[in-house]
User: What shape does this take?
Amino acid sequence: DLKRMKDFEIDEEHLYAVVGPGIIYSQLQEEAMRRGMYIVIGGGGAQVSAIANMIGDGWSPLSYRIGLPHRRILGTELVLPDGELVQMGSLALHDDPFWGEGLGPDLRGLLRGFTGLRGCLGIVTKMAIKLMPFQPERLEPTGISPNTTLQLPTNRIKWINFTMPSKDSMKEAMYEMAKAEIGAGVTKVPIFWRAIAKARSKEEFWELWSKESEETISNFHVLRVLLIGFASEEQLEYEEQVLMDIIKELGGEARRTRPSDESWIK
Ligand SMILES: Cc1cc2nc3c(=O)[nH]c(=O)nc-3n(C[C@H](O)[C@H](O)[C@H](O)COP(=O)(O)OP(=O)(O)OC[C@H]3O[C@@H](n4cnc5c(N)ncnc54)[C@H](O)[C@@H]3O)c2cc1C
Assistant: This one.
């Protein structure tokens, strides 16, 4: 059991954390956010070991903007089955995990191993993970458990849903957003999300969902975009203007969208 291996260190100047396998994402996120930084948490949840998640997954809706998870692994210490200690990235040179690739061949493939996922060829005892700068305001929790959420500052974080005229226009909007380098996350909204949002029980979900037909499913073109002013309020304003121009040109329309939704910002 690796739970007691709780090495934990944050380098605020160079934006990375060094963690042991016993550190879970929520602990890491709390400390990062206190310092105006952010760790991208895989869609699996904040209650898992950061190392266990990073060795095989690390995917989040924010990967659209922030990139491939394994690129955020800056240094790894791995014990092989024969007891040999391997240090990857610039950790192989000295105690400074600033560079994930390091000298020579990039060995991060060992973390995925034969299976490509959860096939790690050793035990990871330490990992340096890149942190991102984040909007500086404290995120306020609201609601009563289990229905809690974070009140997000709308001058820095904004969701907008758009109704698009067709699947192609939705695809085109995604291409144009990527070319303009805007948006923190973007996804097609599947119609069953609507049933999930409305239903208060499993039975109600199935009742709502069974009303949909092949036609309603294939004609539902809703695009969900998350904007974050990572660096400033002006960044969010700029990205919103560019986004609105793209959507207008493609014949889309903004829908009423709930401004606070913690599910993509864990
Ligand atoms: C419904 C669902 C949705 C998910 N969606 C996403 C998603 O969108 N994005 C995403 O990134 N992930 C996703 N996941 C994956 C999930 O996040 C991972 O399964 C989780 O991170 C594992 O964490 P854990 O602490 O439970 O690890 P464990 O289950 O304990 O470990 C996971 C694997 O890593 C190995 N391992 C653990 N620690 C070490 C170590 N120190 N050294 C070497 N090997 C080790 C274990 O042997 C095991 O094979 C999803 C999972 C589920 C069930």
